[in-house]
Recover the amino acids of this structure.
């Protein structure tokens, strides 16, 4: 075989994925995005799926901004506001661009450069559970439709969490069922508390039963600590109060869920905690349950919780989670666009754990949990 014949075959092989995508009727830019997926999975490295990656769009951002003019309204989405930025190809790019549905091509480019194959998307803060009930339901439907549209447009690159109006549990159950069964969304993302109410309240348990029935996880994302907790951060800087304080509140919420007996009633229910599990992996030795639970608290931590590596690229924290929870309960995550895809990869690559455990963290656990 001469060189020209080899070059011709190589060229055809290279184009194959993109041509197939075009033949399926995808627009050219969508076909190229799918072609990038074909190229990345051909490499020897493990597939990489990240699970705490946020997105929004103008209509939602404008609604949230309008609420800021009212007293007691939720704040702007975490990482938004026009002054936060990240590095892409040495140029500073606003996270408002990377974190917007209109910036999908730039997001995909950033993912490709870091070797990220898929993101599980969720709406940027605040979640709909911060709104009045009727507005919460309206926006939950809009968000779920919008994220399903993105996931369907790029099925090899994106999946998504649903949003539900927790403040109206009956409506939340119905919307969760629609989001999972009709739209193909992969779980629930909510922000901290429901207008200041922790999730161990029994009025939310019908939602937990439905999530267990549907076999989908609940991702508790950070939000500002509820009012009763904020006084403890009065002497902190604003940045410390809104980073450390948020994670401490999520950790407390996880402990409350364990102590409530929820996991004895719903043993198959799974929660995801970002920022390396919000510190939960450190505390089981100090949790007793006071004899009210069927299992030791550490057993619930290892059975009902996943720690996501997002936004806490600190190797000792990763090793604590690895030892306390096991490689089967750690999910790869970035907290994009606030944090760097490349830094997230660097953490896992530097970890002194087996290649098999890295593969679990990178994609196998997410594939099992989200049925990808």
């Amino acid at each position: 075989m001469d060189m020209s014949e080899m070059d011709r075959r190589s060229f055809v092989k290279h184009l194959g994925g993109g041509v197939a995508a075009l033949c399926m009727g995808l627009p050219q830019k969508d076909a190229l995005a799918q072609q990038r997926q074909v190229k990345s999975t051909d490499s020897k490295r493990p597939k990489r799926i990240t699970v705490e990656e946020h997105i929004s769009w103008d209509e939602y951002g404008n609604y949230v901004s309008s609420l800021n003019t009212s007293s007691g309204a939720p704040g702007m989405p975490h990482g938004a506001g026009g002054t936060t930025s990240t590095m892409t190809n040495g140029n500073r790019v606003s996270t408002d661009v990377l974190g917007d549905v209109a910036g999908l091509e730039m997001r995909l480019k950033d993912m490709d450069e870091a070797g990220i194959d898929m993101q599980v998307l969720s709406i940027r803060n605040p979640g709909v559970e911060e709104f009045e009930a009727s507005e919460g339901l309206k926006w939950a439907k809009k968000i779920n439709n919008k994220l399903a549209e993105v996931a369907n447009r790029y099925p090899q690159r994106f999946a998504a969490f649903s949003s539900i109006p927790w403040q109206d549990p009956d409506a939340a159950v119905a919307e969760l069922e629609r989001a999972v069964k009709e739209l193909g969304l992969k779980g629930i993302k909510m922000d901290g508390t429901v207008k200041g109410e922790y999730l161990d309240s029994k009025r939310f348990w019908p939602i937990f039963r439905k999530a267990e029935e549907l076999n989908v996880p609940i991702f508790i994302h950070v939000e500002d600590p509820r009012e009763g907790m904020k006084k403890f951060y009065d002497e902190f800087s604003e940045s410390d109060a809104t980073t450390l304080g948020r994670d401490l509140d999520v950790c407390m919420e996880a402990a409350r869920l364990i102590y409530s007996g929820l996991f004895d009633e719903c043993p198959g229910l799974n929660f995801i905690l970002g920022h390396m599990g919000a510190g939960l992996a450190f505390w089981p030795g100090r949790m007793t349950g006071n004899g009210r639970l069927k299992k030791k608290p550490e057993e619930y931590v290892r059975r009902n919780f996943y720690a996501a590596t997002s936004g806490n690229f600190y190797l000792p924290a990763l090793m604590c989670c690895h030892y306390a929870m096991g490689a089967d309960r750690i999910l790869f995550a970035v907290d994009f666009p606030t944090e760097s895809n490349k830094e997230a990869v660097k953490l896992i690559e530097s970890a002194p754990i087996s290649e098999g455990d890295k593969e679990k963290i990178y994609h196998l656990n997410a594939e099992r949990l989200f049925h990808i």
Notes: Strands lie at 49-55, 85-88, 91-94, 118-123, 158-160, 188-191, 218-221, 271-273, 305-308, 330-331. DSSP finds 17 helices and ten strands in the chain. The first strand starts at residue 49 and ends at 55. The first helix runs from residue 3 to 23.
